[in-house]
Batch of 2 targets.
Target 1
Amino acid sequence: MNEESTAVDIAPRNPQQALPGDNSTAAPPGAYDIERIRADFPILKQKVYGKPLVYLDNGASAQKPQHVLDAMNEAYETYYSNVHRGVHWTSQASTESFEGSRKKVAAFLNAASENEIIFTRGATEAINLVAASWGGANLNPGDEVILSHMEHHSNIVPWQILRQQKGIELKIVPIDDDGNFLFDEYEKMLSEKTKMVAVTHVSNALGTIVPVEDVIRLAHDKGALVLLDGCQAVPHMAVDVQALDADFYVFSGHKLYGPTGIGVLWGREDLLNAMPPYQSGGDMISSVTFEKTTFKKSPHRFEAGTPAIVEAIGLGAALDYVGAIGLGNISAHEQGVLQYASERLQAVEGLRIIGQAREKASIVSFVIDGIHAHDLGTFVDRAGVAVRVGHHCAQPVMERYGIAATARASFGLYNTRNEVDVLTDALTDAKEFFG
Amino acid sequence: MFDELRDLYQEVILDHGKSPRNFRHLENATCLAHGNNPICGDMLVVYLTLDDDGRITDVAFQGEGCAISMASASMMTEILKGKTRDEAKRLYEGFHDMCTKDGFDLSELGDFDEDAIDRLKMLSGVREFPIRVKCATLAWHTMQAAVDGEQEISTE
Ligand SMILES: Cc1ncc(COP(=O)(O)O)c(C=O)c1O
């Protein structure tokens, strides 16, 4: 098997190009046809406890449109095979479809090249990859990595492990009471010792949009690299990694209407090709003898073993779907729902919204006096409403606000104001019920 | 909708949840353990004082959690006072079975105060809410860990 076997232009036919998905999802300019969009998501027809499902847990994972389900089914039913290693038709077709998804991801992030797109299991694995590979090779005792107080555990723990192994220091950018990233504090923390700034683009617990352009500019002034955790950003806004001038960007497919088990690490090609492999095995080597093994370049250097083939194809379909609606349209729609939700929720007696940053994605965390979030979750569940309750894998955020848990409504492209009403009514009932 | 929720959140449970009994630090505790339910962030400490015969002379708890976990801890402290180590273990096992097995009747444990048993039975509603079973059993797991000399437990 050689490098050329991964070429994408040799397959005789790519069945995925004949995807059945209809184009009904492309909204005409100016209109956002929410009913047609909702009809694309089979699960939204589901009833729970005899009530329509109101799915407001998109921050944890989003539902999948028929287009994604069809693309994955079609792959399994008509052209599935392992990739990068067969001369037969199915392997070539699968390879083309799989590599086609890589191109779609590259276009989605406006990466300079598809070689910069590494498929991982998700954001968690992507961050672990950078920490272990880049961090392992480049960090020395006394070097500093800056995180923010809003990080998901997956962007904390890999760096803590590196601290143990390498004797690096972690610095944490604080947030204010509204959940704003304290830029002045960040500026003070930066020094020649800073080697990496790893921050979330959007906070999963608070919804805060971090001013990442400025974060990156200042980090680069000090010669530090920047990794952005884009899990909660990519479903809500267009991201252009070149315009941002980022160094690494990660996200998970399942929060972006794609399947689980697939995520993305984007990195600058020069950085990636200078990094040692993360895992090793088949598919990532140029040649192996018992004396010496030479590794392929990115992305294959970092994709040891059989990848999540159909999941990658599903992610590609999800990007097509989101692209057909347009992230600008999605963002406008969601911001409307967010504003409506903030107003309605704030009117619930005793309810406090946790996270009121100046710029927010469509995520609302809240607590209600005297009712534990977990009880709220169970209560609204019986009204058919799915919200997340707990610490959202961001315990430092909870500790910052002196609370153990919040309830969180996170809105996706298919959510409506009507669903906000269902949530608000259920919360009002909960107030009465728990007294 | 309210009816099903009432089965879980009976008035007595809400009352114990809001004003938990024996909610304090026990100065002279002979054993204690920390319980922690990482999924919802519930955290509590159970303190016990055991005399030389292994009888529980005092029991208390502190912590933070949902109505179910607070009420369960509160009711547990009420029933445990005066019980022997072995009785506590039988109650722990009985309570656990009640929360997880259909058709299990806590009264079959016999020779325990009927009122206290009846009160514990009010928590059997969690059987219909599987995700909440851990909330109800957290205090009991923690108590058992304390008696067994373990300091830390986590229900995951
Ligand atoms: C901001 C953020 N980062 C990282 C993750 C981890 O994603 P995954 O579990 O898909 O690897 C999540 C998911 O909850 C998240 O919200």
Note: Chain B has six helices and four strands.
Target 2
Amino acid sequence: MKKNIIIKKIIFFAILIVIWQAVDLANIWPDNIFPSPYEVGEDLMYGISDGSLFYGIGTSMWRLAVGLVIAISGGMILGIFMARTETINQTIGSLVLGLQSIPSIAWVPLAILWFGLTDAGIIFVTSIGAIFAVTINTYSGVKNIDPNYLAAARNMGAKGNQLIINVLIPAAFPHMISGFKQGWAFAWRGVIGAELLFSFLGLGFLLNVGRQLNDVSEVIAVMLIIMGMGMLIDGFVFKKIEDRIMSRWGLR
Amino acid sequence: MSKLEAKNIVKYFNHDGHKLKALDGINLNVSDGEFVCLVGPSGCGKSTFLRIVAGLEIPDNGEILFDGKPIENTDPDRIMVFQEGALFPWLKVSDNVEFGLKMAGIPKNERTEISRRYLDMMQLTKFADSYTYQLSTGMKQRVAIARALVMDPGVLLMDEPFAALDTQTRNLLLVEMQLIWKVTKKTILFVTHNVAEATVLGTKVAIFKNRPSSIKKEITIDCSRPRHVEDQNLFKYHQQILNELKPEVNRDNHIEEKYHH
Ligand SMILES: Nc1ncnc2c1ncn2[C@@H]1O[C@H](COP(=O)(O)OP(=O)(O)O)[C@@H](O)[C@H]1O
Ligand SMILES: [Mg+2]
């Protein structure tokens, strides 16, 4: 079954590369506009051997990680406050909904003015793009907790932070994990976009370098890396966590 | 002195803008070590009364004295076992059972020791490391009972804990529940809409009127234990309770009719 799916995927991508190669051989566009898979592969190998690609991946990943940690912890705190206090929900809650509609890229000018061309600026853009998705999902997760869980916990003497850590957060976790997933997707877009505009290291910066050098195959190579990293994190980090939570919580 | 003394408990709820009187002066005395079963038509306010005893709801009038002191809040000395168990799916069975002890700040090794005793009592030792989704409904209710007993509460409040069980599992738990009561000498308030269950378990059965409800009658069940659902000498009690309940249930139908025509 599972093997079957993998084989299908391999065949699909192989066909895609063959078509790509065929289009290249047809010579419709010049090579400096439409590179062959071989050239892109060459650029990939080159980036790997001189270490620039790994350095780019590493830089983007640590910015992403720091941004996500800030977004997840900040979003959880904000979401829990909103769910617990109606006034906060009615005031800050509506602001959150508004801010959520701003694309993370639109924060870049402000980040540059506030932080200059620094890591902090890029991390700011990354986390602000993700925090509101985490907030909103945490809020609805806490709102949807089975009231009997809370009654039972209170009855057994849980209160204050104890209640939040031992019951509120775990009970809302299945909802929160979709917030983390959305948050990660926004953060990934945010970090690459910010690096592109800041032009200060990372995968987004490499894209920019490729553009400035008119090196289309370099640009495509970096895009493939961005796609690959995204698929890897989606499939291996978030899907794994989600599957585990869902089966543990008896939701599947 | 009574362990628990409910004095004229009145409770209203808001229902689509208008006030609904759920409890209309509940008076009940429970002595230490008594096993009191509460029966009544569905929706009459049995759960509400139990939640008030637990401190999860505040009555609009009247008060309940527990060991002579008025109940104002929840307290681990009055532990509720919920209809659906309300077990925490993110915790192992053993951690569910230890939950209240952990909240009380008891160190891990002591918690393990105490919970092991109750896991053993409820025949859950094999399942200590399981998660709740791996358990049958009957097993889940055992965990819920163990989780309550671990707190060594002054009164155990049970809200239809066996309602969702199949007959076989229920009969087994009815026998075990009597044993637990005998061994632990707990005071128990047990809500059920199953008359047979009430007569098997209770030293006393309190019958609720229809809403707005008060307690219509208390019947002392004087039979040797362990009792079983088929025991001949429980039949006269069944009959007596059913006779008391009949007009309440009919009134229920009557109200429905009024609404529908
Ligand atoms: N939180 C609540 N809000 C509004 N109405 C409620 C609430 N809890 C209970 N009620 C109403 O109070 C009445 C008694 O409910 P309940 O105590 O659950 O009855 P029982 O347990 O005897 O079936 C019902 O009509 C129910 O709809
Ligand atoms: Mg009920």
Note: Chain B touches chain A at residues 51, 54-56, 74-76, 78-80, 82, 84, 86, 88-91, 99-100, 102-104, 131-133, 147, 151 (CB under 8 Å).
